[in-house]
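Morning!

This is the sequence you dropped in the shared folder:
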Amino acid sequence: MTEETARRRAAVLGSPIAHSLSPVLHRAAYAAMGLDAWSYDAFECGEDDLAELLGGLGPEWAGLSLTMPLKRVALSLVDTVSDLAVNVGGVNTILLRDGRRHGDNTDVYGIEAALAEAGVKAPASALVLGGGATAASALAALAGLGTREAVLAARTPERAAGAAEVGERSGLAVRVVPLDRVPAHLPAELVVSTLPGRAGDAFAEPVAASAAALFDVVYAPWPTALAAAVRRAGGTVVGGFAMLLHQAVRQVELMTGRDDVPVAAMRAAGEAELARRA
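The structure's back. Tokens below.
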């Protein structure tokens, strides 16, 4: 029996997990690829539960997607880990092969692919809002696209030191400033908002007046006031769904070992699910 015809399992873990779009995206890929024996589920899992859960997985498991709050703790629970995951300080993908666990990170790829798809390439100036794990991935992605320097605006600059270090290790010159000083650091070719919910909406007016492009990691509800303002001003807008889609595409590639992942089918399934939820 070949690997493609054998029963294979994958899942997304995190807490809370009920809202995750990952099952919709991965299942759409399996269906379009003819992987009828593959399944993908979602399981509630906290930091203290991850080690036990990993220890109980059988040989049918191909991989896991990880969301918050598991990305950092997973670094210590894998046998090998990619340089990228080490650099950004988080594993969002675990590949299971021959009884061993390999940790990787597809968030950075997701951001790079989402921006490139929208025609945003190597912005000379970038302003990143927020100082957490997603901001760290955004800085690494900007470095990968060829950006040389960025301003990181965080509510508590001291807590953004880790994200800034990720950017610097990736080759960026990063300057950390208080979030309330955002208008003083515009214009920028690209503004990246990693702020949760609609927190970025407070900056809609100055960003729309000064940014050529916006990447807002929020995907529901969409569009945010920030995204709508930039779009009205004629700027390029990239939403969080594009990032989620492309990081999932990369996960499917890694877990299945195939490069014919159906991006269009995954996009259509995800958009339909978001419309249903709205």
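Headline: The longest helix spans residues 240-256.

More detail when I'm at my desk.
O.
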